Automatic annotation (TrEMBL):
Lineage per the UniProt record: Eukaryota, Metazoa, Chordata, Craniata, Vertebrata
This protein's encoding gene: Efhc1
Sequence segments annotated as region (Disordered): 536-556
Places the protein is found: Cytoplasm, Cytoskeleton, Flagellum axoneme
Domain spans labelled DM10: 93-198, 239-359, 416-520
Protein name: EF-hand domain (C-terminal) containing 1
Coiled coil: none
Length: 588
């Protein structure tokens, strides 16, 4: 430690001496602790324990010394040099005054708005006294926005004066190119600048709002009715729970209508309805799975919403008084959805359990909606008029253009050219008809009968065809269900009534005997007995014949029995052969 041993000597290099008596050279402590906090304290001694001398002047003396001008020491103060010239474009570079304003624009061709408020920012550039008007860009406004007036000096009047920053203030109107702008406010820099220049600012005004823009900002629903129903709870509770109903739409009353099946899904999580169409294989319809997409289904509309265009706009709560809920879908009930009436005839097991737990409906039986075909209408034919066969007359009732009755082809092929011939006599009270003989021909292929009368010379009756081929109805048979004569009705001794004429069968040819023998099951005992009697008469002994000397009637005289048989044989072109005997042996 170098100190000055001699008091009063200046402390200069070369005049300082070391004090050998000092042994402590520590520094005084400048930090201390009070109540656990470190505080500073001003030391009173210096290094080595020497007492420090500090200024003991009062505050008044210190102030006097601070304000005392050193005139006597340095002389009077010199005037400062003049300030250096700084141009405006340097002094006011990038210094811009910003004002908020708006102007009103008329809208002549709109029914929703009559005028429009457009907000702008007016910028005043101090460096060259130019101005610009910029409109903030609003997305999807449909109006050209941005810089309305580019940066330039704007004329204030017709004399040629231009706007200056002294002319701008809050709460004033300025006209630029025929448009009047209302200045409502300015930024902080503009306020400080104008106040520094001694301009008193008007109080700020509220920015005018565009009425149409504010109308668009309003929510669609004017109000929301408070509800105790928790939609989130409904979603979490009934998620993936769907009621399934089976329904039909019966449109058979309309032209080309039909009965179609559908499946109706009711989603419990959000009360929406979906209708699916049930397609059958080869039904001829396009495979569209959905008849109606999943949506809320209105049940009752308000009175003014009857003509609401539902096909192009969605129905809101304002047009609906009541929506379809789960209690409206019940088995056995009809409901109208989108103009179609659906009848619910069944549901699945989950739906039955839900209605049992929720609404207390223990049983929802399935309803049979199967379309049963009506019983066939019995076709009643009109009474037979007597013309032609009844089968031919009935064809006029079956078709507009009658067709020939269907024939038994197998029977016609089997019995082709098979004819049964019989000899018959006419039963009549007229004496002239007693000796008349007729040949009946029964055609097995068609069950028709023809009658031929052999001509007799000098009888006075013209022979020939008595009846053409036709079916003959038995007497006392019903007109609606006629019974025709068959082969079993023709035997010796049988009475055949043909259209009011009664005939008695007298004899048959050999082919009839063979036919009756081969088809004995078709004939009655009386018919078989008549044939047996005929055969016995033919087999009688020759002694039964009349004596030779007895007077005999001319066998071939007209009217005799032998003449009739001979004429029958001539007509048939055959010879009767029975037991190996000729016709002469049979005493014909």
């Amino acid at each position: 430690m170098v100190t000055n041993p001699v008091h009063g000597l200046p402390f200069l290099p070369g005049s300082s001496f070391t004090d050998s008596t000092k042994t402590a050279f520590h520094r005084s402590q400048t930090l201390g602790y009070r109540n656990g906090y470190a505080v500073t304290r001003r030391p009173t001694v210096g290094i080595g324990g020497d007492r420090l001398h500090y200024n003991q002047l009062s505050q008044a003396e210190l102030d006097e010394l601070a304000n005392k001008a050193p005139v006597l020491t340095y002389g009077p103060p010199r005037p400062p040099p003049p300030a250096e010239f700084v141009p405006a474009h340097v002094a006011f570079d990038k210094k811009v005054l910003k004002f908020s304003a708006y102007f009103q624009e008329d809208v002549p061709i709109s029914t929703e708005e009559h005028y429009r408020i457009r907000q702008v920012n007016i910028y005043y550039y101090l460096e060259d006294d130019s101005m610009s008007v910029v409109e903030p860009v609003v997305e999807n406004s449909g109006i050209p926005q941005g810089k309305l007036i580019k940066r330039q000096r704007l004329a204030k009047n017709d004399v040629g004066d231009h706007y200056h920053w002294k002319d701008l203030n809050r709460g004033i109107n300025i006209t630029i190119y025929g448009k009047t702008f209302r200045v409502v406010d300015c930024d902080q820099f503009t306020q400080e600048f104008l106040k520094s220049q001694g301009i008193e600012l008007n109080p700020p005004e509220k920015m005018a709002l565009d009425p149409y823009t504010e109308l668009r900002k309003e929510p669609v629903r004017k109000f929301v009715t408070p509800s105790d129903f928790d939609q989130l709870k409904q979603f979490l509770t009934f998620d993936k729970q769907v009621l399934r109903f089976y329904a039909i739409w019966d449109d058979t009353d309309s032209l080309f209508g039909e009965c179609r099946h559908y499946i109706i899904h009711y989603y419990l999580m959000d009360d929406t309805v979906e209708i699916r169409e049930v397609h059958e294989r080869n039904n001829g319809r396009d495979p569209f799975p959905l008849l109606m997409n999943r949506q809320h289904m209105p049940k009752i509309l308000v009175e003014n919403a009857k003509n609401f265009p539902q096909c192009v706009l969605e129905i809101s709560d304002q047009e609906v008084l009541e929506w379809y809920t789960a209690k409206d879908f019940i088995v056995g009930k009809s409901l109208t959805i989108l103009g179609r009436t659906f009848f619910i005839y069944d549901c699945d097991q989950f739906t039955r359990q839900y209605y049992k737990d929720k609404f207390g409906m223990p049983d929802l039986p399935r309803i049979d909606v199967t379309k049963h075909e009506p019983p066939p209408v019995k076709q009643e034919l009109p009474p037979y008029n007597g013309y032609g066969l009844i089968e031919d007359s009935a064809q006029n009732c079956f078709a507009l253009i009658p067709k020939a009755p269907r024939k038994d082809i197998i029977k016609m092929l089997v019995n082709d050219n098979k004819v049964l011939r019989y000899l018959a006599a006419l039963e009549s009270p007229i004496p002239e008809d007693k000796n008349r003989r007729f040949v009946f021909s029964y055609f097995l292929a068609t069950d028709m009968i023809s009658i031929f009368e052999p001509p007799v010379r000098n009888s006075g009756i013209i022979g020939g065809k008595f009846l053409g081929r036709t079916k003959v109805v038995k007497p006392f048979s019903s007109v609606d269900n006629p019974v025709y004569y068959g082969p079993s009705d023709f035997f010796i001794g049988a009475v055949i009534e043909v259209f009011g004429h009664r005939f008695i069968i007298l004899d048959t040819d050999e082919y009839v005997l063979k036919y009756m023998e081969s088809n004995a099951s078709q004939y009655s005992q009386e018919a078989l007995a008549s044939i047996q009697n005929r055969v016995r008469k033919q087999d009688a002994p020759a002694q039964d014949a009349p004596p030779q000397d007895a007077p005999q009637q001319d066998a071939l005289a007209p009217g005799s029995e032998r003449y009739c048989c001979a004429s029958t044989m001539w007509l048939l072109g055959i010879e009767l052969r029975t037991s190996g005997r000729t016709a002469s042996a049979l005493n014909l």
